């Protein structure tokens, strides 16, 4: 692993991780969507996938501001989460369970991204990089909005449908 000498280097590393994560999600989540049967979840997922593209654009602005280019490293945490998501989807025996599992995995990914973005925002504030901090605040707000929508769908629809399976058994 790379050695870091400054907080600025750590900030750049965190931002690169998120850039790669958003790109990875945008490309790889499409395969999982074929297994989603709930229309509300499918629609929300399409918004989530589009927000990944929007977040990448914000991150490009941040990199431009910092006068750096993101590296082309692999996003290991996101790849592991996606692999776990796929395994869970393949092991679920009904559409309702697949929808519930997909939603839960997507919420976990959102938590991870929010944590990394929030950490990067804290670093940017300490470095007095106001523009970077403001852009990260916008990204964090988008992530929070996505998470809130996913939670509403979980409560109102998806987990209720999955819970009915237990009641019918």
Outline the structure in words.
The protein is mainly α. The protein is built from 5 helices and no strands. The chain has helices at residues 7-33, 39-66, 76-91, 95-126, 130-168. Helix 4 (95-126) runs antiparallel to helix 5 (130-168). The model has no long low-confidence stretch (mean pLDDT 87).
Q: Helix and strand layout, with pairings?
A:
Blueprint: H1 7-33, H2 39-66, H3 76-91, H4 95-126, H5 130-168
Main attributes?
single chain; 169 residues
Task: Write a brief caption for the model.
84% of the residues lie in helices and 0% in strands. The protein has five helices and no strands. The mean pLDDT is 87.
Shape descriptor reads elongated
Main sheet, how many strands, which sense, barrel?
Answer: none
Rg value: 17 Å
Kindly estimate the percentage of residues that lie in beta strands according to DSSP. Answer: under 5%
């Amino acid at each position: 692993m790379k050695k870091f000498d400054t907080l600025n280097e750590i900030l750049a590393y965190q931002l690169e991780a998120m850039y790669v994560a958003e790109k990875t999600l945008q490309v790889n989540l499409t395969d999982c969507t074929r297994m989603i049967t709930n229309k509300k979840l499918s629609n929300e997922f399409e918004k989530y996938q589009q927000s990944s593209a929007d977040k990448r654009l914000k991150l490009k602005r941040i990199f431009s501001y910092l006068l750096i280019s993101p590296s082309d490293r692999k996003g290991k945490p996101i790849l592991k989460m996606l692999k776990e998501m796929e395994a869970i989807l393949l092991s679920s025996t009904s559409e309702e369970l697949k929808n519930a599992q997909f939603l839960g995995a997507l919420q976990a990914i959102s938590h991870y991204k929010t944590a990394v973005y929030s950490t990067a925002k804290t670093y940017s504030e300490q470095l007095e990089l106001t523009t970077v901090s403001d852009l990260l605040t916008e990204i964090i707000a988008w992530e929070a909005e996505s998470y809130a929508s996913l939670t509403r769908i979980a409560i109102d629809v998806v987990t209720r449908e999955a819970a009915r399976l237990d009641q019918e058994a």
